[in-house]
Amino acid sequence: MAQDIEYYKKLAETEQDTTLKMAALDSVISMSFKKDDELFISKSLEYIVLAKEQNDLKSAAKKAINLQSVLTYAMNDSRKAITVIDRVLSHKYKIDDSFLVGTLHFRRGRANYPIDLDAAIEDYSQSILHYSKTDYSRKGNSYIYRGHAYSDQGKFILASEDYQMAYTLFEKIKDYELMLYAQQGNITMYSIHGFFDKAKVERDTYLKKAQELDLDYNYSLTYYNQAIDYEKQGLYEDEFEFLLKAEAALDKNNSKQVFVGVHSKLAEYFSREGNFDEAENHLKMIETDLNLLLNKNPKNQLIYEGAKATYFHKLKQDNSALKHANTRYNIAKNSGRQEDKRDSYLQLAEIHESLGNYKNAMTFQKAYVTSKDSIFNLSNAFTLAYYQTLYETEKKEKALVEQNNDILILKNENTLFKSNQYYIALSLIGLFGIILLFRNQKNLRNNKTLQDRFSQELIVSQEKERIRISNDIHDGIGQQLLLIKNKLIKSNDDSVRLMVENAIDEIRTISRDLHPFQLQELGITKAIEYALVNIDENTNLFICSEIDNIDNIFSPEHEVNIYRIVQESLTNVIKHAKAKAIKVSVMKLNKVIIITIKDNGVGFNFQEKFKNLKSLGLKTLLERTKFLDGHMKVQSVINNGTLLEYQIPVK
Hints:
Layout: H1 2-14, H2 18-32, H3 37-53, H4 57-74, H5 78-89, H6 98-112, H7 117-130, H8 136-153, H9 156-172, H10 176-192, H11 196-212, H12 219-232, H13 236-248, H14 256-273, H15 276-287, H16 290-294, H17 298-314, H18 318-335, H19 338-355, H20 358-418, H21 422-491, H22 494-514, H23 517-521, H24 524-538, E1 542-547, H25 556-577, E2 581-588, E3 592-599, H26 606-611, H27 617-627, E4 631-636, E5 642-649
Parallel strand pairs: 1-2
Antiparallel strand pairs: 2-3, 3-5, 4-5
Helix pairs in contact: 1-2, 2-3, 3-4, 4-5, 4-6, 5-6, 6-7, 7-8, 8-9, 8-10, 9-10, 10-11, 11-12, 12-13, 13-14, 14-15, 14-17, 15-17, 17-18, 17-19, 18-19, 19-20, 20-21, 20-22, 21-22, 21-27, 24-25, 25-27
């Protein structure tokens, strides 16, 4: 075989006839595939140049397609792969094979995926457009990979739609393995954003379907992902149980990432339990072929370095732990995944604290809290978007079922109408019309009640979560910082003591923002006045206010919602209005409290803003007002300010 390659290499170098030269290059390319990557790449590039010179764009396209995976994955050179495909796609309108054009876009999307998600999504979309309507398999793959890219961008509804579309396409051609792969994408979506019960139900369905189809190669990954969900919930015994299941199923799964993940997480579990011999055994399983398992795979390195850092930290060998934690941090920083960075911040904070590096520990602790809040806010936004989408989908499906039922009823009755008198037919139509109208009105009322109840329960749930986080910050991190401060006072280290005091102030500010303790200590009236003073002291806005005393009128739960209405309205003004002055009025009348907030800012188009699904501010204010059985009025003129008025009844 080596002699054959040398023969064709020499022939390709000496042959003057272009057709024969290309044939010799083609032989070298075929023989070197997966055997000599550098030779494969160099001869493929040479072939593409010759094919373009001969205007043989189809042959150039095929070689560029085959070259992409080697450049992207074997050589870790995505940009080179993109450049090669760009040069062919620049002539795509001369390629009369839409399959080739679609595959070129798909392959460029795969090359773009690690470095430019927007570009990858555009390429996957182009591949879907170019593949034929009956090419279910390739269209399905494009939907799956576009779903991955949307998921990495945080566009979860779009990702979920793509996974479902891929599942439907694979189902048409009975490609059960890819059907399950598409379903796995949706399971991952639920898991990432905290719908752990939903993810567990979907995984159970997935495993049952896989058993029915005798497709057991992916059990290990499924068990491993379930273990990770249990870890996120703090259910470590359940995590351990599923890690053992994943380990037992590894022999049927060739994925290096699953192998590294399972043994790394088992090492972390045993390290936490103090069973260091068992933890070391699992780390050694990875280290027997470390280069093969970790080389050019950031995700594998991230998991492994985290496990090593945990192992050394629990052994109290924190200098070694810090080395691995820093490596993990650098990988996480480059990956762009918020959860990886958040976990890395926490691990570094704990190790630096053990080493007595309190300044570094504080820096990483602060980064951890900021990242955690960011992920929490994103998760809440996704939760709301998910339930809104679910509600709208169910409403549309219900309306469609009712419409189809009504059509069937009318068709059946039409036969009867033809056999009866004309006036009886008219009477029946009128009767059905009245019944249909009544049913529609009833359904609309039921749907409205359901939506209002969901919105109110969501507001109550959010407020409880804010109180919980506020208490955790105040009682946990706040108390630890006070202890550190007291130790520093004794050591006379004024610079670090000042840093700790600033951190304590920030913690208290975050805690107060999450849960207004002024309500409990001073009452709703003083709490509103305090919020206005805080804005006056920390912004350039001119504040004018007239606040009547409204203490002891509402329940504590309603007082929180009134405070949030004022707080969120003021926040919207500060963020979006570009105003120079705000006037706030709270008037206590006989049976109603009227709150008005007026600014001289840029104003906005209310209808446009309210219909925007990404704009949750006005919707949240409206739902809080409904929770209080009140009414909300908005008057806004572009470049002429905004007036918000809330009328809240006194019961």
